[in-house]
Design a protein that fits this description.
Blueprint lengths: L10 E2 L6 E2 L16 H8 L5 E2 L6 E2 L3 H5 L8 H9 L2 E4 L6 E4 L10 H7 L1 E5 L6 E5 L11 H5 L3 H9 L2 E2 L6 E2 L10 E4 L2 E4 H10 L7 E4 L12 E4 L1 H10 L16 H13 L4 H8 L2
Antiparallel strand pairs: 1-2, 3-4, 5-6, 7-8, 9-10, 11-12, 13-14
């Protein structure tokens, strides 16, 4: 037998107080509290008293604005007045005094200070500069950069240099990399330099601009500081000529005659056996 329909009992509107018959509730929802949409909207616009954050006057903000974090000012004029005023604050990281508007009050003066406040300050053992890392990286982060990590101390550089030198003879021969001219190459502080030049500067101090580390033993691979002396390009060239180490005569790569041919040409011309044109044709010069 079908169930008999029973109309809902009349209720009293919570907004206007009038009696009304609620609509049929088919899904067991909460009972109807208002007689119309107008009364329901009026109940949601119910307001409370607040104090303006700018002028201090009591006013009635909308409840929905208070729920969204608004409703601090009684009007637009007070809002703009408050935005034109500034508040002095102290940064929680660098302790520098900074100013903000009431709507932008914060603990830090910048994003940099905010990020640094979440990190730990460390001191680089190479350059002595202060740098920052996350707390989880303090156990592994010793240097401020890769350059400092790869940089050696003077003692470490000297140990690496002398480990590539053969001191068995009077000339200390370089066993490391050598360029086409026979001189050794060495890398220190990220820069390449001549091995004998580094040896001289390590023993006697830096060379002045324009000076070379010249060899007295004439051995390019020698890095013995006792065999090195400072000099200019002209000094080095004069030393080479004085020791007759310069390329001359038939040893020059552009030479067309041998030493014997030169003597034969001069003798034949002095005796009048041939003219210069005949000698040039004969020797192809």
């Amino acid at each position: 037998m079908p169930r008999k329909y029973t109309p809902p009992a009349p209720r009293c509107c919570e907004q206007c107080g009038q009696a009304f018959t609620p609509k049929r509730n088919r899904h067991d929802q909460a009972p109807q509290r208002f007689c119309s949409r107008a009364c329901r909207g009026a109940s949601q616009r119910r307001t409370v008293t607040a104090v303006c954050a700018s002028c201090g006057v009591d006013f009635v903000p909308v409840t929905s604005e208070r729920a969204r974090g608004g409703g601090l000012y009684c009007g637009t004029a007070c809002y703009h007045t408050a935005q034109r005023t500034t508040i002095e604050l102290t940064c929680a990281h660098c302790e520098r005094v900074f100013t903000r508007t009431p709507s932008t009050v914060g603990r830090f003066c910048s994003h940099t200070c905010y990020n640094l406040s979440r990190k730990v300050a460390l001191v680089c053992p190479r350059c002595g500069e202060t740098f920052y890392r996350k707390a989880s990286q303090t156990g592994t982060a010793r240097y401020c950069s890769r350059a400092c990590k790869e940089r050696e101390t003077p003692a470490e550089t000297a140990a690496r240099f002398w480990s590539q030198v053969d001191k068995s003879g009077e000339c200390w021969l370089w066993k490391g990399s050598v360029i086409h001219s026979g001189y050794g190459r060495f890398t220190a502080d990220g820069k390449q330099t001549s091995a004998h030049r580094w040896s001289y500067q390590h023993a006697y101090g830096p060379l002045a601009e324009g000076l070379l580390a010249c060899h007295s033993c004439d051995t390019p691979r020698c890095v013995n500081p006792a065999h090195l002396f400072p000099g200019t390009h002209a000094t080095n060239t004069d030393d080479m000529v004085r020791k007759e180490r310069n390329v001359r005569g038939s040893l020059c790569h552009t030479a067309k005659l041998r030493v014997a041919d030169v003597h034969a040409i001069r003798g034949a011309y002095a005796r009048g056996e041939r003219t210069q044109r005949q000698l040039a044709t004969h020797y192809g010069v």
